[in-house]
Design goal:
Blueprint lengths: L1 H17 L3 H17 L5 H23 L10 H12 L7 H17 L3 H13 L15 H13 L3 H14 L8 H15 L2 H10 L8 H18 L1 H13 L2 H9 L1
Length: about 260
């Protein structure tokens, strides 16, 4: 089915990167794209879900290129898939979580590409279209893009007060499971520190929150992108030293650093 193909493509990209298997990564992208194409015969919610899956797979390929793999990257493919999904979404309640996830991923991708104004509009769309999760309420793993897009786009446009407030809200509403654990707060705190030019804290927090960067495509793209900027600012040796210091911090101390 379209959903199975697009989902298989997304899930197969991560082990392909871990093992540096170029052939496996290319196959994963082919599966994801095939699922997106097949979804045209299905109803709107299933098409949106397949487009989200395929877009996430292409985000992972961008991460793969950054870490040195050579699989070709279509620089606009992920954005095109996310944008198509957003456009498909009717403005009614049953579609809100899918729409917010698609808009959140598109915002993060636009941010990394340097289109900050468009990224902020999309992040606000994602944030406003979905209410904050209820305590303990289960959410699909891909919904985290909505929670982090507003934080990082506000930071990138220089609204650091609003960005810190958004990060505190994200931390308060986070779940304590695999996706919404405290490492997400640490990673985002590192991104905000980098956006402020506080490279020392950025390196420590990105080190402390490294686990979050291996959990979802959105966090992986942010982690790799801002780690590169930290290495450029500090040099690889100093960045590594500070990252090790961050990983050695207690969780409480690291959270305090991220939220201050």
């Amino acid at each position: 089915s379209a959903l199975a193909r697009s989902g298989h493509g997304t899930y197969a990209t991560v082990p392909a990167i871990v093992t540096r298997d170029e052939s496996r990564l290319r196959s994963a992208i082919e599966w994801a794209d095939a699922g997106a194409a097949m979804s045209e015969q299905h109803s709107v919610p299933w098409r949106m879900y397949c487009l989200l899956n395929a877009g996430m797979a292409h985000v992972v390929v961008r991460v793969a290129r950054i870490v040195g793999m050579t699989t070709p990257v279509d620089g606009t493919r992920a954005d095109d898939l996310f944008a198509e999904g957003v456009e498909l979404s009717p403005p009614v309640a049953p579609y809100r979580y899918l729409r917010s996830a698609l808009a959140g991923y598109l915002a993060i991708s636009q941010l990394v590409n340097g289109n900050t104004a468009r990224a902020l509009d999309l992040a606000r769309d994602a944030d406003e279209s979905t209410p904050a999760p209820r305590a303990g309420a289960p959410l699909p793993w891909w919904s985290n893009a909505r929670g982090i897009a507003l934080v990082v786009t506000l930071g990138e446009v220089g609204d650091h007060v609003a960005a810190r407030r958004a990060l505190r809200e994200h931390h308060e509403h986070r779940h304590t499971d695999y996706i919404f654990g405290p490492e997400s707060t640490l990673l985002l705190g590192g991104v905000l520190a980098a956006q402020r030019g506080d490279w020392t804290d950025a390196a420590r927090l990105l080190g402390a929150g490294a686990q979050a960067g291996r959990r979802t495509p959105a966090e992986g793209l942010l982690s790799i992108t801002y780690l590169e900027r930290v290495h450029t600012a500090l040099g690889a040796e100093r960045a590594q030293q500070l990252g090790d210091e961050g990983r050695a911090m207690t969780l409480d101390d690291a959270i305090d650093l991220a939220l201050r």
